[in-house]
């Protein structure tokens, strides 16, 4: 199904660059539309910038300050600081503009109109008239032919029938609407955007040269001299040509800036990059360089090979950490701040103090020392205070005076780190508080990392690249957000991908961190995670819920392989909550409190919501004031219903 741009309303035809809202799946924007959300407009004598708004609801008699025609529902630009618009009774309000009137303002003079043979001039005086082009009445600004005394709607004539453009001086470009000619590549020669994304476009049939409206009204500079890009003046080469961009190291196929004496080529939109930045793929700052210099290097974001002779970003502390310029400055990677003039503070990020070879004092348990235990002896119901997962065969630190326990790996986590789910720095928090992990979506009340708009449980925060999983022969990486998990077939915002050619394997964080081994009272042995058997046939049943299982999907099995257990039945929804811990949720203007309880008694409680026996290893118990009795909830769905 073709998606429409939230700005201009035109569809995404084929594969094109664009932006998508982080919070929803519907906020789609063309690249050129998203890059022009705040713009200057010639009618604004105040010099202010026009700001965008979405899903505007029309006010009474509100008209566009560009064409003076009525504004209907849709996207528009507003100048909130200007008083051009009279509201009556001596009151004035903001200036409002149609999307196209703001982004592509009408020319004062049209030398070659679409529907007339004489020159037209824009009359910035509101009047009533009948349009000579479409025959409909109009109220607002108009184009007028002073020879014929005819008037036209601004929107009927605002785009000339032909233009002369500096990027194609040989012939004038003629206005075309609708589908581009079949012999063209259907893209703009300068920016590469699909022509179908533009309301109209201009074309030279003799040279097979096309430009969209964006490049007609806002073209790249012809001969820029920007020391941020190159020491010499550059020249725009408006032709189809394959090249490797010296600035960002990525390949291009059209209209580069060139400096012939220096053998310099650059995308015409590769400018304005910051010098020193923080990115969520690396804990240190990275700096822009004109020469990567590292042979056989791979970008730490897209995982594609980098051209060592081109520019990019690199870490001064970690010579092998290099990044493509455009990858490092992606909106889902960079926090948008230039750090060139900001001093980098040296911080102690270690979360523990070494007492001796096997003893530490941890920031989360300062009152007692913790001693390292390497015995690997399994003790029932022993869990890590940090990640809330059981301690089976792992090394761990245990308190020398109380029952406090941490996995060795959890004890060594730093006080802050950067993570792919957010552009902000995440800080280590070690007090009990219920969160929903941004990466995997699971509930947790163990230790966590928090940023302004993201919370991570320690297991997700500990994922590093390359991520190796037993189910897949290749390592996985976080190259880009959002994808369909190859394991559970659910869409997830944060996923790990296989970068091998034609593999396409995707795994979300929830499936990636499923424990390989787990202890459950359904069997005396450890249960092992099985990754499915494509050749399996016959019927299999889960011994916990007594419902049929699909052996071709992931499941848990016993040592003798006689069990096929649903993963949800083995783990439940509340595996990230500490047994005996307490919490609450807000319901009907009141807080409803709960206690986390292990399901290890002989009788299973009855769930208040689904009316079935609780089969999961952990459930919630809540006190009902009206009935003066406890209520039990077996899953998230039941608790939040």
Automatic annotation (TrEMBL):
Keyword Zinc-finger carried by entry: yes
Classification via Pfam families: C1-like_CT (PF22926), C1_2 (PF03107)
GO molecular function list: zinc ion binding
Keyword Methyltransferase set for record: no
Transmembrane segments: none
InterPro entries: C1-like_sf (IPR046349), DC1 (IPR004146), DC1-like_CT (IPR054483), Vacuole_Formation_Reg (IPR053192), Znf_PHD (IPR001965)
Signal peptide: none
Zinc finger PHD-type domain mapped to chain residues: 4-83, 130-208, 298-388, 484-546
Entry keyword set: Metal-binding, Repeat, Zinc, Zinc-finger
Protein name, UniProt field: Zinc finger PHD-type domain-containing protein
């Amino acid at each position: 199904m073709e998606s429409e741009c939230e700005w201009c309303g035109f569809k995404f035809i084929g594969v094109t660059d664009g932006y998508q809202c982080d919070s929803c799946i519907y906020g789609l924007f063309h690249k050129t539309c998203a890059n022009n959300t705040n713009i200057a407009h010639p009618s604004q004598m105040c010099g202010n910038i026009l700001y965008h708004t979405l899903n505007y609801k029309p006010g009474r008699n509100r008209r566009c300050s560009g064409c003076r025609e009525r504004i209907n529902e849709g996207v528009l630009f507003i100048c909130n600081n200007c008083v051009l618009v009279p509201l009556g009774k001596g009151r004035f309000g903001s200036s409002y503009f149609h999307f196209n009137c703001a982004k592509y303002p009408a020319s004062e003079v049209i030398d070659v109109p679409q529907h007339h043979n004489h020159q037209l001039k824009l009359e910035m005086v509101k009047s009533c008239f009948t349009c000579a082009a479409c025959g409909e009445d109009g109220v607002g600004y108009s184009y007028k032919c002073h020879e014929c005394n005819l008037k036209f709607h601004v929107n009927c004539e605002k785009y000339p029938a032909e233009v002369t453009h500096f990027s194609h001086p040989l012939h004038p470009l003629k206005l075309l609407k609708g589908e581009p000619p079949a012999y063209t590549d259907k893209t703009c020669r300068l920016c590469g955007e699909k022509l179908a994304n533009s309301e109209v476009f201009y074309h030279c049939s003799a040279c097979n040269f096309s430009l969209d409206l964006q490049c007609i009204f806002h073209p790249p500079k012809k001969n820029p001299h920007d020391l941020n890009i190159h020491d010499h003046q550059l020249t725009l080469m408006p032709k189809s040509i394959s090249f490797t961009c010296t600035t960002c190291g990525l390949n291009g196929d059209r209209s580069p800036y060139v400096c012939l004496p220096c053998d310099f080529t650059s995308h015409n939109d590769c400018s304005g990059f910051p010098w020193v930045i923080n990115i969520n793929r690396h804990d240190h700052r990275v700096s822009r360089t004109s020469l990567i210099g590292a042979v056989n290097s791979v970008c730490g974001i897209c995982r594609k090979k980098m051209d060592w002779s081109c520019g990019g970003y690199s870490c001064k502390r970690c010579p092998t950490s290099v990044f493509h310029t455009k990858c490092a400055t992606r909106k889902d990677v960079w926090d948008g701040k230039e750090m060139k003039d900001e001093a980098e503070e040296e911080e102690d990020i270690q979360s523990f103090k070494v007492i001796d070879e096997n003893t530490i004092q941890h920031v989360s348990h300062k009152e007692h020392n913790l001693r390292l235990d390497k015995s690997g002896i399994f003790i029932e119901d022993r869990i890590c205070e940090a990640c809330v997962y059981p301690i089976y065969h792992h090394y761990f630190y245990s308190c020398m005076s109380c029952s406090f326990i941490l996995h060795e790996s959890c004890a060594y986590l730093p006080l802050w780190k950067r993570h792919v789910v957010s552009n902000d720095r995440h800080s280590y928090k070690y007090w009990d508080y219920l969160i929903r992990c941004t990466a995997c979506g699971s509930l947790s009340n163990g230790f966590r990392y928090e940023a302004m708009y993201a919370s991570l449980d320690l297991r997700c925060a500990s994922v590093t690249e390359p991520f190796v999983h037993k189910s897949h022969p290749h390592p996985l990486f976080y190259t880009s957000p959002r994808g369909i998990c190859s394991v559970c077939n659910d869409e997830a915002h944060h996923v790990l991908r296989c970068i091998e050619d034609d593999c396409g394997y995707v795994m979300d964080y929830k499936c990636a961190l499923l424990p390989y081994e787990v202890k459950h009272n359904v069997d005396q042995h450890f249960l092992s995670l099985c990754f499915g058997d494509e050749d399996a046939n016959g019927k299999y049943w889960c011994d916990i819920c007594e419902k049929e299982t699909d052996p071709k999907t992931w499941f848990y099995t016993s040592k003798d392989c006689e069990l096929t257990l649903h993963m949800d039945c083995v783990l439940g929804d509340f595996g990230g909550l500490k047994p005996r811990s307490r919490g609450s949720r807000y319901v009907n203007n009141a807080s409803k409190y709960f206690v986390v309880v292990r399901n290890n008694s002989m009788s299973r409680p009855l769930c208040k919501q689904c009316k079935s026996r609780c089969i999961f290893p952990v459930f919630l118990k809540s006190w009902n004031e009206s009935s003066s009795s406890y209520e039990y909830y077996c899953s998230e769905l039941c608790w939040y219903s």
